[in-house]
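Severity: low
Component: inverse-folding endpoint
Summary: output formatting inconsistent between runs
Steps to reproduce: submit the following structure tokens with default settings.
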């Protein structure tokens, strides 16, 4: 058995593939409808998610981390709340009084709350006790006027610690003021952000409505227009493709040629007349040029000048003639004209016309069949368009109603909210400002106390320095007093703010920012029960017999899933799972439901063609007579080869102009004057020949060449000769007749099937466009999610975060107040001492720590008696503390004496303590 070559094995499948591809090539090139795209670039949304924490971002992050410590991911333990069918019920743990899991989860918050409540109750009591203690001389209320051994060190350490505490306190005070201001700004602008959100949501709904109308109404009208035009052109396209495939159009070409025979005869007659005119004009020109040549040769030779000889040589005057053209060699067209006349008068035209009428009858039959079925197809298409428009009107009406309802119900509530904010938010702001001001007042007292205590002098008793250490001590006590007076109130406000801010951030902000599988969002989802709402809408859609049926399967919808899907910028159809009650896939059944495909199939079945006889035997004989006519003798080369546009070798006007110039320069003389006159006369003859003979001959020659080439092209039809063209016409027309009778029916059916298929493909292309656009393009949820994020920013970032930052700053200050009380009380006592450490002499005394009660009582009494003398000689003290001023009072307080020259005046009392070193004489 012979083996098949490998190349031959490969060529067989390639050939089969090529045949399939060729057969699969469409006969009709049906143009796809170019649908206009919906333009959304002009839609501008105003909601903004931009946010600037203005330096408070680290504080907000710390506050949120603190809240995360106290609040679990699931804020409500299982078993305490049950949400179903729009109701919130107590869980089984509540009925069983099982509070253990709840206490276990929130023990930290309860502990903080308990500590705060205890401190709120204890701080006034502690302050009262401290006040009473100081009033009775204890707790630093009275102290010795001189420093103890380590008081300087104590002042430095306590001062440094208080400086650190006060410096940290500055941060809390600044945070309190700033966050209170930021929070007020956020509260005042919350309605503005809400209005922008409502505006963008309405614009989104209106844009989505316009997009639906554009897709379901305008795009379908574009499709319907193209389909109607396709139907109207269907018969012409079928016939045109049939003629092209069968070459039946050659009959029309031949018929048109026969109809042009009178024009061809006219062209031939015109050529004959032009040829005769050229012969006559050429003869006249030759006679004239011979006479001019004879006269010019005589005159130029007699002239004898160099210019005359040069003209005679340059223009070859001796050979002046018609450039050697023999117009008698042009063919005589009389016999061809007679042959064409015979063809015109014969039955050739009517014979071919019968074939043309056969083809026209075939065309009219096809056209009539198509036209009879066009109204039915168009009616089905219009019904489909009407159904689609009803769907469009329903959807757009609902969206517009929702947009109007959103605007009507939102703006009035926002106006009411503006009134409440304007009326009441200022009180909250002033309350926060008051708390911040109290913190600032305490801070100022501490700062002034530190400044006076560190930079001021010791108190010397004369009051000559307002910012001494004693004033610093009093500022410290003032700060401590304000702390005790306001601590409980501020802590109560901070505790309430902490609880409110924690709950708000966890329940609202965290849930909104991360809605996927969030417990609060799930509770809200169960409370709203969107699936129940969807069941109602599905039932209403089924009862209303909507054009778009609901899907067979019902997909559950959840609020968190809606938000997450919207964040991905999915279409509103996917986000809201609208297929539960409006299944866009069902629009694909419209062409079948409203009869478009049925009417197209009926059109396909009715288009038929019958057998035709394009050329009768008589018509064929007439065409053969045409082929053997004298038109075959027409030879265009005899015209193009024997004709030229250069009638003379040189332009006669040019020669005449040169002769005139030579004549003007001929020397004077009797004989020379005759030569001059003769030259000018011959120049005039040449100019006249150029105008009256040469130029008309050029025009006639040009026209004759053009007519001959045009006629040659008309007769040969691109073939080598006229007879070959007619033979080809006969062959092609016979083959066309055979093709139409044998293959025409199948070809027409194939074309019709392709037309119907293209029509159906156009419809389903539009249906697929509607389905794809609805699922992926219409109502992309990005703008709504931007509104959602802008609301979160406006409420959480601009209100809740500053709110939590406010109580964080206040709590920071309250925590710093506790060590500040201790440092302030201690420093106030140390700053009241007027004298430095005097040495071991002052502190000399019993070494035994177990002193007698009498000594302790004596030491606890007011020690000012040691320093303020009452004149008792029994009172012993160091002599250096004795006042040397003269004692000129009788048991009364010391007074200053008026100068001797001063007029009597009321005596000025010199307030103790004082020090008088004595008169100068006492020191001598």
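Observed output (run 2 of 3):
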């Amino acid at each position: 058995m012979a083996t098949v070559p490998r190349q031959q094995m490969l060529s067989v499948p390639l050939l089969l593939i090529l045949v399939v591809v060729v057969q699969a090539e469409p006969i009709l090139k049906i143009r796809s409808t170019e649908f206009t795209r919906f333009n959304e670039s002009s839609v501008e949304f105003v909601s903004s998610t931009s946010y600037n924490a203005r330096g408070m971002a680290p504080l907000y992050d710390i506050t949120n981390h603190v809240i995360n410590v106290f609040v679990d991911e699931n804020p409500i333990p299982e078993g305490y709340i049950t949400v179903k069918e729009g109701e919130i019920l107590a869980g089984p743990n509540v009925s069983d009084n099982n509070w253990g899991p709840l206490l276990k989860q929130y023990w930290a918050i309860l502990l903080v709350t308990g500590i705060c409540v205890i401190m709120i109750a204890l701080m006034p009591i502690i302050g009262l006790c401290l006040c009473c203690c100081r009033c009775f001389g204890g707790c630093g209320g009275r102290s010795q006027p001189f420093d103890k051994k380590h008081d300087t060190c104590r002042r430095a350490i306590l001062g440094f610690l208080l400086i650190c505490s006060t410096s940290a306190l500055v941060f809390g005070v600044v945070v309190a003021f700033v966050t209170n201001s930021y929070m007020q700004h956020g509260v005042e602008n919350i309605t503005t952000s809400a209005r922008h959100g409502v505006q963008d949501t309405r614009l989104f709904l209106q844009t989505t409505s316009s997009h639906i109308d554009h897709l379901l109404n305008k795009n379908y009208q574009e499709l319907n227009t193209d389909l109607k035009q396709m139907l109207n052109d269907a018969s012409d396209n079928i016939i045109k493709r049939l003629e092209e495939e069968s070459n039946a159009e050659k009959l029309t070409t031949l018929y048109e040629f026969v109809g042009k025979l009178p024009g061809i005869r006219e062209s031939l007659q015109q050529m004959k007349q032009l040829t005769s005119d050229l012969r006559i004009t050429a003869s006249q020109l030759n006679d004239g040029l011979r006479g001019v040549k004879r006269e010019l040769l005589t005159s130029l030779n007699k002239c004898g000048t160099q210019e005359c000889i040069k003209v005679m040589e340059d223009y070859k005057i001796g050979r002046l003639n018609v450039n050697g053209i023999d117009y008698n060699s042009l063919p005589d067209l009389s016999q061809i004209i007679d042959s064409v006349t015979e063809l015109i008068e014969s039955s050739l035209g009517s014979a071919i016309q019968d074939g043309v009428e056969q083809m026209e009858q075939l065309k009219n039959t096809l056209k009539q069949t198509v036209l009879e079925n066009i109204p039915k197809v168009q009616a089905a298409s219009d019904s489909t368009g009407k159904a689609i428009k009803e769907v469009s009107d329903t959807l757009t009406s609902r969206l517009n109603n929702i947009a109007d309802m959103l605007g009507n119900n939102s703006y009035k509530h926002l106006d009411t909210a503006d009134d409440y904010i304007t009326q009441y938010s200022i009180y909250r702001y002033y309350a926060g400002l008051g708390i911040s001001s109290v913190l600032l007042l305490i801070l100022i007292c501490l700062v002034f106390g530190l400044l006076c205590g560190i930079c001021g002098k010791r108190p010397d008793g004369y009051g000559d320095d307002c910012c001494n250490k004693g004033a610093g001590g009093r500022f410290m006590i003032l700060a401590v007093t304000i702390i005790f007076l306001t601590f409980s109130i501020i802590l109560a406000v901070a505790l309430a703010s902490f609880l409110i801010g924690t709950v708000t951030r966890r329940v609202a902000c965290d849930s909104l920012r991360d809605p996927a599988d969030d417990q609060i969002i799930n509770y809200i989802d169960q409370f709203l029960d969107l699936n129940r709402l969807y069941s109602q809408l599905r039932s209403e859609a089924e009862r209303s017999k909507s054009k778009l049926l609901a899907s067979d399967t019902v997909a559950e919808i959840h609020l968190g899933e809606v938000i997450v899907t919207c964040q991905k910028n999915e279409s509103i159809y996917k986000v809201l799972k609208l297929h539960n009650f409006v299944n866009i896939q069902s629009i694909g059944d419209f062409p079948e439901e409203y009869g478009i495909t049925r009417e197209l199939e009926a059109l396909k079945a009715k288009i038929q063609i019958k057998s035709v006889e394009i050329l009768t035997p008589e018509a064929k004989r007439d065409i053969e007579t045409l082929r053997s006519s004298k038109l075959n003798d027409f030879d265009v080369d005899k015209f193009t080869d024997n004709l030229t546009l250069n009638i003379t070798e040189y332009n006669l006007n040019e020669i005449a102009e040169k002769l005139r110039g030579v004549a003007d320069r001929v020397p004077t003389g009797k004989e020379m004057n005759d030569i001059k006159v003769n030259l000018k006369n011959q120049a005039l003859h040449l100019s006249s020949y150029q105008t009256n003979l040469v130029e008309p001959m050029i025009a006639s020659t040009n026209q004759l060449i053009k007519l001959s080439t045009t006629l040659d092209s008309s007769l040969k039809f691109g073939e080598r000769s006229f007879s070959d063209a007619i033979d080809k016409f006969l062959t092609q027309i016979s083959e066309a007749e055979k093709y139409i009778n044998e293959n025409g029916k199948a070809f027409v059916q194939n074309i019709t099937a392709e037309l119907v298929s293209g029509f159906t493909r156009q419809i389903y292309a539009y249906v697929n466009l509607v389905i794809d656009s609805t699922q992926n393009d219409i109502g992309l949820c990005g703008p709504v999610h931007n509104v959602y994020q802008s609301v979160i920013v406006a409420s959480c970032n601009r209100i809740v975060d500053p709110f939590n930052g406010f109580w964080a700053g206040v709590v920071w200050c309250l925590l710093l107040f506790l060590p500040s009380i201790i440092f302030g009380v201690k420093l106030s006592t140390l700053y009241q001492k007027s004298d430095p450490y005097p040495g071991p002499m002052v502190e000399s005394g019993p070494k035994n720590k177990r002193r007698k009660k009498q000594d302790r009582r004596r030491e606890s009494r007011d020690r000012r008696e040691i320093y303020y003398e009452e004149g008792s000689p029994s009172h012993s003290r160091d002599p250096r503390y004795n006042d040397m001023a003269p004692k000129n009072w009788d048991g009364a307080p010391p007074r200053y004496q008026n100068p001797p020259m001063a007029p009597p005046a009321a005596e000025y009392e010199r307030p103790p303590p004082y020090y008088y070193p004595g008169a100068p004489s006492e020191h001598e």
